[in-house]
Automatic annotation (TrEMBL):
This is Lysine-specific metallo-endopeptidase domain-containing protein. Keywords: Signal. It comes from the Eukaryota. Residues 1-29 form the signal peptide.
Amino acid sequence: MSPSIVFTVSRLFLAAIWLFSLFPNFCIAWSIAPDCAVFPQISEAMTEALNLAIYAKLRAVNGPPRLGTSMVDLLAAPNEDDTDTLVFAGKWYQNVINAASVPSPGGIVIHCSDNHLTPIDLANRKYIDKERDNTVVFGPKVAGTKPTDNACGGVIKAFAYSAGGQQVILLCSDSVAGALKSSFSYPISNWRAEGNLKDYTPVVDKGLDALGMFLSTMILHELMHVASFVEQNKALQPAQFPAILPDKVQGEAIGEIYQYSPISGKKLGFSTSSGQSTANNLQHNADSFALLAASWYLPRYAWVNGKCATIGTPRQAPAVYPNTPTPPGPS
């Protein structure tokens, strides 16, 4: 190698170090905050959440026909192969992938503690993010529960917000209800090939809601909100996945709907719905999309009225579709 080339390479290397010193938070995609150091499962769970979105996007546009009642129950679709609903779902799963691919300073950062949020108005669950220019953040409110002084605590599992040019996902860890304390200790991918889910105690007891107990599904719920933030930053538009759903019910505004029975209006295993919300509300409901993606991610199974049923091999979707993209990785 000639001296001039060595000199040029050296200058480029020094320039890279200088740029990194100016922009230490620069990353190729999403990142994990230092307060997650004691939770080594975060990277795997985030990657799996993105794989859920990738698979769901492909499942929405590829055969074979979808079996069960997941899309009818979770999105109030006319049927499992309704083209308009599938196109809409595929679009938003792609938006999740796009949002997770944004580099810093506008990318996603995952926190595992709310210590960076300082309360300034507890009555209104109002905080400032000390790490992001003291941006005002509102903690979640859950009707019928007593809020805690900190942003997490109580029944809060996780939440997402936009601050300081970043999209923040906060996975709560300070109570037994927090996402990092209440989730299964293993990934949902374990359920793609092992045993028969119909015999698994969590599935027998909870049905489709068992899929919501995986950390990756909880993260995907928050990623739906993040995708909405990112799309709002591109153009002035209402949030696709807001905390308050667009259609009132009996004249009252309602918040997000969680879990199978409240979303579908059905008791587990029953075909009759006694109070499913509007299709418009459910297509703005993050948990609907997270649970739908999780249900599709297990191609050996269909979910009929929330209960698990097996699918014979000839009618199963492929475990991996051709040309499946690699999920965006961490910095």
